[in-house]
Amino acid sequence: MRNPKQLEWPTVAMLAVCYGLWLVCGLVVWPEFPLPALALMAVAVALHSSLQHEVLHGHPTRSAAVNELLVALPLGVFYPYRRFRQLHLAHHNDERLTDPYDDPESWYRSAVTWRRLGAPLRFLLVVNNTLAGRLLVGPLLMVGAFFASEPGRILRGERGVRRAWLHHVAGLAVLAVIVFGVMDIPPLAYLAVAWAGMSIIAIRTYCEHRWEERPDGRTVIVENGGVLGLLFLYNNLHLVHHKRPQVPWYELPALYRAHRAEWLRRNGGYVFPDYWAIFRAYAFRAKEPVVHPAWRIGEVPASVSGGSFHPAGAPTGPRVGGGAVVPAKADRE
């Protein structure tokens, strides 16, 4: 466990690797080998997303302002960091995990919402529930739902939304100077980089959560993350992260190994040996239905439509299962 007074040097080193890779590819590799440069920049974008996730949980310093500054350059283009932070911290309410109304990162739809959707969107959501579909159409659905909902939030003056976008626009201006002015990468080429970075992250998020009556059973463990595990900062051990969100990424593997049997018991066996097992099982087969299993009948439609990062429905609404929930708080440090 970290000393809260200390700087977390492994995270600082990973930030240096991320920005170093991105800069070298854009300044040195791009002029001679454009396609490999763009591919490696997409990897840097995915790593930057993982680092933003680490930062919003209070790493690598005790200063939220310093931490935000470390990931302020929006390599991934599409999402303001502060909006990501707001929505992701709301997602960490484990009692509401997968709720199509209350979990901002849920891909599930309620039966009421599903019946209202047109055939083309239904088709895309079904395809999106395969891993190949998540990599191909997932970014389109994520960005589309997010951009559709944000103007209304800005107009309604929702807390922090306007400022998040102002910070983001300022960061985009700096990014544009570097990418278009210094690196001389065309805008469409860099948008493809950002898009590919989202697809890489989708490998991690595809299986992260499922519906299960017990909240601890809703979060996956991928035991051997390999290179992808490092790229995802060991969020393949996702239950461990959800129960101990203040633990830095580099301590998660040891924490898991020390209590492996207990972690497996807690999540009810929602475990994969590695990411290749997920590819084999679900590349072209849906892992689960689009309609939430606990929201098939007896629902009341939510009064507000719109999504957040994923097309999930309103941010508030009836409770999963129509009643009580099983407490699932984060573990105490």
Automatic annotation (TrEMBL):
InterPro entries: FA_desaturase_dom
Domain of life: Bacteria
Alphabetical UniProt keywords: Membrane, Transmembrane, Transmembrane helix
GO biological process, one term: lipid metabolic process
Transmembrane helix keyword on record: yes
Residues in Fatty acid desaturase domain copies: 35-270
CDD domains: DesA_FADS-like
TM helices/strands, residue ranges: 12-29, 131-152, 164-182, 188-207
Name of the protein described by the UniProt record: Fatty acid desaturase
Organism, as annotated: Oricola thermophila
